[in-house]
Amino acid sequence: MLDLLHSRRQRGAFLYPGAEIRAPDDARRGRAERVSMEGQIKAAVEVGRFRLAITAGVFALAFCVIAVRLVDLMALNGGEAAARMAAGGGAPVEAVVQRGDILDRNGEILATNLPTVNLYADATKVLDPDETAARLVKVLPDIPFETARRKLASGLTFTYLRRNLTPLEMDQVNRLGLPGLDFEPAERRVYPHGRLAAHVLGATDVDNRGIAGIERAFDARLGEDNRSVRLSLDIRVQHAVHDVLSQAVDRFRAIAGAAVVADVRTGEILALVSLPDYDPAGYGQAAKDARFNRATLGVFEMGSTFKLLNTALGLEEGGLRLSDGFDASEPLRMAGYTIRDYHPENRWLSIPEILVHSSNIGSARLALSVGGPAQKAFLDRLGLLSPLSIELPEAGEPLVPDPWRPINTVTISYGHGIAVTPLHLVNAVTPLVNGGLSRPATLLHRPPEAVDPGRRVVSERTSAAMRDLMRRVVTDGTGRNADVPGYRIGGKTGTAEKVVGRGYREKALMPSFIAAFPIDAPQYVVLATLDEPQGLPETHNFATAGWNAAPTVGAIIARIAPLLGVMPSLEAMANQEDIRLVAARRAAGATE
Amino acid sequence: MIRMLMRGGGAVVWAVLALVAATGLFLLKYEVQALETELAGIEQANERHREAIHVLRAEWSYMNQPGRLQTLASDHLDLVPVSPERVTVIDALPFRPRASAEPQRTEPPARPPRVLNPGEADAIPVPGRKPTIVADMGRR
Questions:
Q1: Where are the domains of chain B?
Q2: CB contact, 8 Å: A580 with chain B?
Q3: Catalytic positions of A
Q4: What ipTM does this complex have?
Q5: Closest Cα of chain A to B101: distance in Å?
Q6: Other CB atoms closer than 10 Å to residue A146's CB: what's the count?
Q7: For A225, which DSSP code?
Q8: What is the pLDDT of residues A225-282, one digit of tens each?
Q9: Class of the A102-230 domain?
Q10: For chain A, which residues make up each domain, given as ranges?
Q11: Which residue, among B84, B67, B83, B63, has the nearest Cα to B75 in the 3D structure?
């Protein structure tokens, strides 16, 4: 090839006409050219060269542009990768599901969305509605044949046959190979803990919109913002409370029950149980009674637990001291009513004795000595006269007498004639034990730095006195059955007669027990209440709070205190040995 | 001769260069395409894994229902809830008695704890005079 080029060069040397005569051989040819390139001709050639260079430059530039573009297109995909890098680097990862999770205080999932598929039919593509329906109901037996046939024959281009198929069901429907059936990706709200926290969580409808509880209260945040909600509940505590309360309801054959555990230092609710309850996934089928949240929506006359508030009223507003007392030797007659004592002592009682023996007469006289307006103002300060403030749509409104007559002052002193929710009572008792600071109860997790500073409602001194008195109720009074050795429990029993129609029914009781532990430096308040428990032979046929609600609270505390890291006290355990020895002696006696 | 070769060879060199560049570019393009496919695959896998993690987290919560764990623990383990007398803090434990130069007081021989109604399963041991039999055995 090079030879070829070479020879062509030799042969094709350019000569102007006639010049070949003067250039007979190779040696002289260059000179001959030089000689001929003179003057005008040379200038013309220069111009030609110049133009050629410019053209070449322009072409070179064009080829460069093409080359760059080629590299860009081939190697960098026309900037697409760079654009994706820029976009993908900083953008948050898209959420897997369309609704946020509900978590407990430790991050355990209480409610979440899971991806599923919905089965729908395009009836215009269905060949034979009868056959299609017959084969479909064989795979999905929960669809009635008639419904499936009607939908498949409806002629609509879109109709849901069944929502939320499992992967197995989806596979089976696919295997049928029926035309006109198709799947749509969907999501389903799942509650891994079932009914455990049902009344707090609430429920969602088929379109995953909240219709009750936290799901409804935080619907915008969970749904539109797709952010999770972290509750103050501790699912372990919730389980322990649920377990113990269910056992108590069964054992005492009560029709219902409610229990609350709250942190007195932050106002956080660690457990909130209302029985009977429901499975949030089957909210629509649940009975109305099961859906009813007794802890926050139901208002009840709470009975003698109000004597705690009454005693605090006397100490705080009435200027009374613990050594003061009232005459409880005779029933108190007022406005056609006679106020009697359930455990009559028939003597003068000091303020601690009034509480320990749960004297209605003494409480009534105490309240009368302080006066109705002061009592009303005090209860208002404790939040008992205003609707419950809680992050649930199911928040009850107290039933308060209007006008506030002296007879109301008397009955309210022992917890009748005013109906509040159990959570109201927890809220009101909390400042009595925590040093006097009232914080709104909350179902949301509060990090330590976000804790409400609190509003002072009673003095430190009153609170300290109330702690002592609550301990005495458990050691010497009606709450003995609540005691758990090691955990210093203080509390108060309350047995309310239920209002039936316009009067009270003596046999329909609603006992409750409210406790704080450890009582020397309270951390938690526990309330349990049972609805119409029955007397049992082992409770000597009593159905009052000391025999059912108090041991229930004791059992709850024994279960939850180790979970919550409450240290049992050593001096309380020293007495434990005596109890063991007594038990041993009794066993010895039995064998003799 | 060499000059002519260079003049003619210039085009050849350029042609070869262009060929090499084009080939390189195409090779690069295929490499890029392969990487793009791989990236798309990884992204899809990521998405699948994220979904799987979400589902598994729900399942973890479901499997960790306290009631279920309680049943499992009572069925398969000999564990019982902690009673208050078994809970204490390190600071509350007494120090080991210091070994003194004085001769040890002769202690009465260790006796096993007295057991009431021996032979019965639920016998309650009553503290004997010397309940620290285990410590004594260690010293011997």
A1: 6-72
A2: yes
A3: 304
A4: 0.74
A5: 33
A6: 10
A7: S
A8: 889 999 999 999 999 999 999 999 999 999 999 999 999 999 999 999 998 999 998 8
A9: alpha beta
A10: 102-230, 241-581
A11: B67
